[in-house]
Amino acid sequence: MKEQFTHHDALIFAMVMISAVDSAMPDRELQRIGQLIDVLPVFEGYDKENLILVSQRCAEILGGPEGLDIALEIIRDALPPRLYDTAYAVAVEVAAVDLSVNQAEIRLLQLLRDRLGLDKLTCAALERSAIARYRKA
Length: 137
What we know:
Structural class: mainly alpha
Order of helices and strands: HHHHHHH
Number of helices: 7
Oligomer: single chain
Largest sheet: none
Strand content: under 5%
Distance between the termini: 53 Å
Number of strands: 0
């Protein structure tokens, strides 16, 4: 039987993947994931008690054979197309929270963009808006 994932799971996968891509999950990124779940309308009704289990499931999948491809497929398949840009936006948000985006994060964002079929202009706008939000005076 094929495992079922919700759109919430898929969005959490995107955030966990971008946080873990460089083999570290800084506290600032983990806090931002929790904050996004608390404030974004797309997470309305989500039970945060599931966050740890979903994050662990994501880590298990990533640790397996072809884990990255499988995780990206889960994200794409569990989301309705109207939430593809939302998945990219939350991933960018988590990547940007520490005020620097490393090469591994950039590469994962490119893979996510390509897997979801997002255009470069949309992604650039989402990236630019994150830069503006996190800019210091």
